[in-house]
Design a protein that fits this description.
By secondary structure, the chain is mainly α. It is 62% helix and 3% strand. Helix 18 runs parallel beside helix 20, helix 24 runs parallel beside helix 27 and helix 32 crosses helix 33. It is elongated and about 160 Å long.
């Protein structure tokens, strides 16, 4: 007993086999206490048992009343539980059993009788133990009958054990009542779990209240409750404890409840009790604990199954779902743990099932799921307000458990609706749902879990479940009706892709669902057509301008302006998503059986996708939405190569495209041409489709567009047949047919396309068609839009004029036949008349065909200007006698008198919105035509005068007007305007410095250091550009390349800035040496050049290798942006992506070449990192090119010097100057450094005769100084040095400050003489002397200098 006493206080002993061994010992005593043969011995063991129970009762009684930890109470419940059981120490230790015979025992064990334990079952059936019960004392019989319990007890042990349990329970109840002791309540729960009998519950009842409970129930139930002490205890005590909120964990109270339920005789009684508790306002965690314990024990589940399936609990749980969903979406929810237990309860009743039946009634499961679906549907609308994260997260947990646990649960309509709603939340971007990443991940996992259950649990899912069709219908509506941006589309495609991947993961039986889903989601013909009609029609501008399509009627469609900058066309969204599905199906074709009808559907999808891709292709250069869509296709891995690889498996793919091109033309023809070009389709494949050329006639829009785009893929015979047929029909065309597609307009358009697409046998055709056009002019002059108002012109007439102009341009570019005088007159007079029409109708250029008419008129002017500019002498002899002079004196001047003001007018009217499609395109062609203007035509312009207040200038009014008019357009946000203006102003730059030369006499003798600004109009623009560039490049370190997207706003600003600097450098180069000094002083003072150099090292690539080099060229010396000349043209070319980089390198090269001293000064002042970056880059890529050019310029120089010979050695980068006069002979060697022109140029002495050492050193120092500090070439430095030496020999004394006759900067002679010592000094040198010494004394005699 002392050992037991100690064990009750020691947790380690409680875990040991001690208590089980005590039980074994007790069982042994009980066997020997049966009086069979030896009554004396039996009496002894009975006494031992009595002492044991008395001692144990005393020990336990003391421990119950003891103040301390709960350890002893746990120990007591543990030993009592073991003592009432039949298991011995074998259960704990699992040791091998052995027989032990004591010496005082009889030799035979036959005298020992094993007493079977009695099992008190809940139900009385199977009464194999009835005999044992009958042999018990009557008191035990009655107790056993009233308190059945599933425990094995010997008849001898039961009475003292129950007496002890009753005593301990009564003691515990005192502590619970008086001290509110939780540990005693927990101990009581453990006792009742082990001894659920009426006798124990009887002692726990309060006497004065026993039997006085008032019920509003049927009399049978009231009698049952009054008779059963366990039930009376529930209503008297347990319900009070259950209602108290102080117990955070009511698990032991639930144990008491199950002990009470064990004392009930039927499930109906238990259900009645639980229904009563359900109606009470109890905490939800209590019901959670009840259901959890029932799910973990089959007997407990059986005892309360009637209650679980009942209406009371079901209604309560539906109400709970309502409350949780409403509170989560409308108000701030309670604490997470408080809500968590409620959601866990819902999850438990939905996810647990017994023998494929739900835990609660099916009707209530569906109602709860319906509430969850309703809540999530509201969450989509409440995403921007309310605290929904927690509720949605809990709903996800509940739904995920439900989907994965209950087989066939998704056949419930409400469950399918819930799954669809979760999918919808996952298929929309976070900008719309406002859900966090964590929550979206959870939602995504939930719907994929549901889909996985659907795929694995149901066969013929598309027939039994509505999820797939409903999901597809929603996606289809999103594609056709919603305004999706890039992010929304990507999220939607990702969700659909997850669905498809999950279908593939489900294995072969589910693969057919890919085809089913594609059929669900695929629009019908009318829906596809509606989406195509809604596509913005601005795509048409590019093919119309390029002549790939010709139209003579108005086309209806959506204006791109109506689209927001982020909205995607519905056709693009539908075709891109469906193509992902179709591509996946075709790539898995080996595992699928694709029917002919399904192949036709896939062919339609691929065709629509190509249509959409072509739409993006046509728009990508002019609209951001086009570029964005092209990038999106690449992101989705949708390429022509992948599409064709899959399309080849579809028999009708190419036929479908060609059929649509013939029937509808327009973008379908462009699409067919793009695919043919990408796949190098041979003429025989097309021949199969159209059989013969006769099939194209009579011409329709579809057949005309097909000819225009597929002509280059035809065989030679078919090309010739088409041209001959079109020409023949054109010659026989009647007046009323001239404007028709199957008439003059259509035939001429087809011929033009054939000529432009490589038809070479054109020498006979071109002059013949010209004669036909001239005959139209004679017979039907009203068809020609000469100097007229286009507002009154029909689209058919405009379209015809467009084709006539195109043909004349082709005639100029392609024909080598000599034209007659009247034919040249017709061409050039028509060109001027059309330009006059354009000039008078600029406001109508927003109309697509009028815009094309204007652009084609400018192209004809450009073609004529180029023809006469590049004309060969042999060709001049074949021209009419006065044609060239007429062109120069009249037609060329007429062109530019019209186009120069037109450029200013259009650009000036649209400076706030220069990037609109119509204006930007027209400006491109106007600018391209204007670039051919000559310098004389510019100087004789007819622009209105334009001056700026307080603008300092030496320029005449005509030149100043040109600068003030065009210089601001360098800030224009349209590349064609910037390039055209650059070409115009660049022709003027060499003419400007001479006007400053005339005023040079006013500079140089001032006491202050003189400066002179480059043209004020350019410098004003440059200041604005510097601020813009500083904002754009501020965060990019010098030496790191700034990424500039072509045609972005930053691109225009940087392009204008670099072009402005090219103009300034061109102006600087044209200036004399004296002026360059003044200009460079200005640039140094305003620090503009320093800013330029910092910016250049953010715009030049680290490796300026010229792109697209062939294998042959790469084997030689690599081409770089410094070795290849940059030709900036108005028309955009393939080099647009690296135009800024090449232009930056060009500006840096010119700056090093023309301003080497200033660059060197800036470089020496840079911090160490930048110093090294500049030195390394320049030495590697620029110095070699510049050195070679400098040496070559010396070798090829035609400049001659009296008394001095200059020669160069390219191998050693040396220039040698030999000066000789009378008996004096001087040889100087100039060595260029490896990092020329950053490093100092070394001047070494060669031979010298007749020169003192000191004088020699002075001259060497002077030459080194000139070459280091003057901004010019080596030849200019040598010329300056020779002049200095010549003056010295003429008797002019050196300035005693700089020890030079000629000043190194302003090239002046010493003129300021001291009145005392009579020595003369340079004005600039004296100014520096006075300012640095802070006095006005002579540097030699120190007398005051007057």
């Amino acid at each position: 007993m002392p050992l037991i006493d100690d064990a009750l206080k020691d947790p380690q002993l409680q875990k040991s086999p001690l208590f089980y061994q005590i039980g074994d010992t007790l069982s042994s005593w009980e066997k020997r206490a049966v009086p069979l043969n030896d009554e004396e011995k039996a009496h002894t063991f009975k006494r031992m048992l009595s002492e044991f129970w008395n001692s144990l009762s005393q020990i336990c009684g003391v421990q119950v009343d003891a103040i301390g930890s709960e350890t002893s109470l746990v120990g007591m419940s543990h030993i009592l539980h073991i003592l009432q059981g039949s298991e011995g120490s074998e259960k704990m230790c699992k040791r091998k059993s052995t027989k032990i015979r004591f010496t005082d025992e009889e030799g035979s064990t036959s005298s020992m009788v094993n007493v079977k334990p009695v099992r008190f079952a809940v139900q009385s059936e199977g009464t194999s133990e009835s005999g044992i019960i009958d042999s018990m004392p009557s008191a035990m019989k009655s107790q056993t009958a009233s308190d059945p319990t599933p425990l094995y007890l010997s008849c001898i042990r039961r009475e003292p054990l129950e007496v002890l349990v009753c005593k301990l329970a009564e003691q515990s109840m005192v502590h619970i009542s008086e001290d509110k002791s939780v540990k005693h309540l927990r101990f009581l729960a453990a006792l009742l779990s082990s001894f659920p009998c009426g006798r124990v519950f009887e002692v726990l009842l309060t006497p004065e209240r026993a039997g006085n409970i008032v019920h509003t129930k049927p009399q049978a139930e009231v009698n049952f409750m009054n008779e059963n002490p366990a039930v009376r205890f529930l209503y008297q005590k347990l319900t009070v404890w259950l209602k108290e909120d102080c117990q955070s964990d009511p698990v032991f109270l639930v144990d008491i409840l199950f002990s009470i339920l064990q004392c009930c005789s039927s499930n109906a009684e238990r259900s009645c009790i639980l229904d009563d508790l359900t109606r009470m306002d109890l905490r939800w965690i209590i019901f959670l604990q009840i259901i959890q314990k029932a799910c973990s024990d089959s007997e407990k589940y059986s005892s309360i199954s009637l209650w679980l399936k009942g209406d009371t609990l079901g209604t309560k749980l539906v109400t709970l779902a309502d409350v949780l969903c409403h509170s989560g979406l409308e108000t701030t929810t309670s604490s997470k743990s408080f809500c968590s237990e409620r959601w866990t309860l819902l999850s438990l009743v939905l996810s647990q099932h017994v023998e494929n039946e739900s835990l609660i009634g099916e009707v209530y499961v569906e109602k709860i799921v319906s509430r969850l679906h309703t809540a999530l549907s509201k969450a989509k609308d409440l995403s921007e307000s309310g605290s929904i994260e927690q509720s949605v997260s809990f709903i996800c947990d509940v739904a995920s458990n439900f989907f994965s646990s209950i087989k066939g649960c998704l056949l419930m309509p409400s469950a399918e609706d819930l799954l669809l709603t979760i999918f919808q939340l996952c298929a929309q971007s976070q900008d719309k749902t406002r859900l966090s990443d964590r929550l979206l991940d959870k939602l995504n996992h939930t719907w994929l879990t549901g889909l996985n259950s659907l795929l694995h649990q149901l066969s013929n899912i598309h027939q039994k479940s509505t999820f797939l069709p409903c999901c597809a219908l929603w996606v289809k509506n999103q594609l056709q009706s919603s305004s999706l941006d890039v992010k929304n589309l990507q999220v939607l495609i990702s969700a659909v892709n997850d669905l498809l991947c999950k279908i593939l993961e489900a294995g072969q039986p589910s693969f057919h669902l890919l085809l089913v889903y594609m059929d669900y989601i695929n629009p019908d013909k009318q829906e596809w057509q509606n989406m195509r009609q809604a596509v913005p029609m601005q795509w048409l501008n590019k093919p119309l301008l390029e002549g790939r399509l010709s139209l003579n009627s108005e086309i209806s469609g959506t204006d791109l302006k109506l689209y927001s900058t982020s909205r995607l066309a519905n056709h693009f969204c539908a075709s891109s998503l469906l193509s992902k599905v179709a591509l996946l199906i075709m790539e898995k074709q080996d595992l699928l059986t694709v029917t002919e009808a399904e192949q036709s559907t896939i062919s339609t999808i691929f065709a629509e996708l190509l249509y959409s891709m072509q739409w993006c292709e046509e728009l990508k250069d002019s609209a951001a939405i086009g570029r964005k869509c092209c990038e999106l296709f690449l992101t989705m891995d949708i390429t022509y190569e992948r599409l064709w690889k899959c399309g080849e498996k579809v028999a009708t793919f190419l036929d479908e495209l060609y059929y649509r091109s013939r029937e509808r033309g327009m973008l379908w023809s462009l699409t067919a041409a793009k695919l043919s070009q990408t796949r190098n389709i041979e003429s025989c494949e097309l021949k199969r489709l159209f059989q013969n050329t006769e099939g194209f006639f009579p011409l329709t829009d579809g057949s005309l567009h097909t000819i225009q785009n597929l002509f280059s893929f035809f065989a030679g015979e078919e090309k010739e047949e088409l041209v001959i047929q079109c020409t023949a029909r054109l010659m026989t065309c009647l007046k009323e047919e001239i404007l028709n597609t199957d008439g003059g307009f259509g035939y001429l358009a087809a011929i033009n396309s054939c000529l432009r697409n490589g038809y070479t046998d054109c020498e006979e055709i071109l002059p013949g068609i010209l004669k036909i056009i001239m005959s139209w002019k004679t017979d039907h002059e009203d068809l020609f839009l000469f100097s007229c108002n286009l507002k009154d012109a029909s689209l058919q007439v405009i379209a015809l004029n467009i084709e006539i102009i195109r043909h004349l341009s082709l005639l100029i570019n392609l024909s080598s036949c000599s034209l007659a005088d009247n034919e040249w007159d017709f061409i050039m007079c028509s060109m001027l008349a059309w330009l006059e029409t354009v000039s008078e109708n600029t406001l109508l250029c927003c109309v697509p065909l009028i815009q094309v008419f204007a652009c084609e008129s400018c192209k004809l002017a450009s073609a004529l200007s180029k023809y006469f500019q590049d004309i060969a002498p042999s060709t001049i002899e074949k021209l009419p006698r006065n044609l060239l002079s007429e062109w120069k004196e009249f037609f060329s001047e007429g062109i530019h008198n019209l186009l120069l003001p037109l450029l200013v007018k259009i650009a000036g009217e649209n400076k706030d919105a220069p990037s609109t499609l119509s204006n930007a395109t027209l400006l491109k062609f106007v600018g391209d035509a204007v670039k051919y203007i000559s310098k004389d035509q510019l100087l004789n312009h007819r622009l209105p005068p334009k001056f700026v207040a307080n603008q300092k200038t030496n320029l005449p009014d005509e030149l100043q007007t040109l600068l003030n008019t065009f210089a601001p357009f360098l800030l224009y946000r349209a590349r064609p305007v910037q390039i055209a203006v650059y070409h115009i102003l660049n022709k003027l730059m060499p003419e400007l410095p001479k006007f400053d030369d005339e005023n040079l006499k006013y500079y140089g003798d001032e006491e202050e250091e003189p400066v002179l600004s480059p043209p004020a109009a350019l410098m004003s623009v440059l200041i604005t550009q510097e601020d813009l560039l500083t904002n754009i490049l501020a965060d990019i370190p010098v030496g790191q390349l700034a990424v500039v997207q072509p045609l972005s706003e930053e691109f225009y600003f940087i392009l204008g800035y670099l072009l402005t600097w090219k103009l300034i450098l061109s102006f600087f180069k044209a200036a004399s040496s004296q002026l360059r000094v003044l200009y460079s002083q200005y640039l140094r003072r305003c620090k503009s050049l320093n800013k330029l150099l910092y910016h250049l090292f953010r715009l030049m690539p680290e490796n300026p290798t010229f792109p697209s080099q062939t294998v042959e060229s790469s084997s030689k010396e690599a081409k770089t942006f410094f070795t290849e000349e940059l030709n900036v043209t108005v028309q955009e070319t393939a080099v647009l992506s690296f135009e800024i980089a090449h232009l930056a390198c060009s500006v840096y090269y010119t700056t090093l070449k023309d301003l080497p001293a200033m660059v060197r000064l800036w470089w020496n002042g840079c911090e160490k990192r930048i110093f090294n970056v500049v030195d390394k880059f320049t030495s590697k890529y620029v110095s070699g090119v510049l050195s070679s050019q400098e040496i070559a310029s010396v070798q090829m120089s035609t400049q001659s010097f009296d008394c001095m010979i200059v020669k160069a050695r390219s191998a050693t980068r040396e220039v040698i100057a030999i000066y000789s006069v009378d008996d004096i002979f001087i040889e100087l060697i100039i060595q260029l450094p490896s990092n020329y022109p950053l490093g100092s140029i070394a001047v070494e002495s060669g031979k010298r005769v007749g020169v003192a050492v000191q004088q020699w050193r002075n001259w060497t120092l002077q030459l080194s100084t000139y070459l280091t500090h003057q901004n010019g070439s080596i030849m200019e430095g040598l010329a300056l040095w020779k002049n200095n030496v010549d003056k010295r020999f003429e008797g002019v004394e050196d300035c005693m400050i700089c020890f030079s006759v000629i000043h190194g900067s302003n090239y002046s002679l010493p003129k300021k003489a001291c009145r005392t010592c009579k020595k003369k000094f340079h004005s600039a040198c004296l100014y520096k002397w006075f300012t640095s010494s802070n006095n006005s004394t002579c540097p030699l005699c120190r007398e005051t200098f007057f």
